[in-house]
């Protein structure tokens, strides 16, 4: 076990422990309100033995984490703490979170997208949760947390309900919801209603356990958690070998993050044509060359092969609709897209991050694609915008830690 520390919202220090090798798949454990990271003792041990890299942290105002002098314990502070913490991790973890921690994780993933985590495990984290019960010491003596008394005075659970409810429908990662059958935080009916809003969720009940299920029945909870992880977020990486499933190779190639471009030219009739392409790269500065790869099935291929001039328009984060439009066939792509003619006549999309105006330099066969090499004649770019990114089959945006 190694101590770890992260900077949370407004610089609040979040302290915790790490178990196992950082090269293994990561699991982030987040306790509930009025608890500390100690509730995860047995679960962390089981995860480490199963080959997972485990990080558990104390929430702000709890345990060894900083108790902020300004006593900021509104729900948004916990959500922003989690976003900041995830930005400092070297890989996307599966988040395992209880009650308040689960609320914060649900809001962060639903509002910012699945790129923050590889999976989500919620323990009794429905919006209708009885927050007073969650913060009340239990009769077993297990719930002996050290936390700032200002937390219970300053936290308004009602402020979290709407955000958690709205965020659920946007979570795309695999989700497991776990509930102890004797939990006082919520009933099975509330859990069922909540889970109906998820796209990809599993449900598990742990018998003879209350809201402290990860501590009261650590053996059963760990077994349930590990079963979910091995099925939905497996420890061993997929492998492609020549002749095997091409989808696996495609997924492997998708691990290389790219920008997104729209390649444009004029057809023989002088009409603008274009298509979305993320297989784009610079080739040379002397002479100034770049290349794009065009699928042989693309309807624009004939025009691209015949054209002496073309343009590559690199899209910014606000141009995702443009990317989607030019990725579809049978659409009048330029009817609703502002554009102008460049110096070489090729269509330039207005407001793009970069417009490269090119003269055809070479064409090469590239299997099921044609490799189009262009000599850059002119380039204009917008330094104040951020790029639209594509990674593992989804649009992304830059995240500044």
Automatic annotation (TrEMBL):
Keywords: Oxidoreductase
GO molecular function, one term: riboflavin reductase (NADPH) activity
Keyword Oxidoreductase: yes
Pfam families: Abhydrolase_1, Flavin_Reduct
InterPro entries: AB_hydrolase_1, AB_hydrolase_fold, Flavin_Rdtase-like_dom, NADH-dep_flavin_reductase, Split_barrel_FMN-bd
Listed SUPFAM superfamilies: alpha/beta-Hydrolases (SSF53474), FMN-binding split barrel (SSF50475)
Ranges where the Flavin reductase like domain occurs: 253-397
The keyword Oxidoreductase appears for this protein: yes
Protein known as: Flavin reductase-like, FMN-binding protein
Organism of provenance: Hyphomonas jannaschiana VP2
Lineage: Bacteria, Pseudomonadati, Pseudomonadota, Alphaproteobacteria, Hyphomonadales
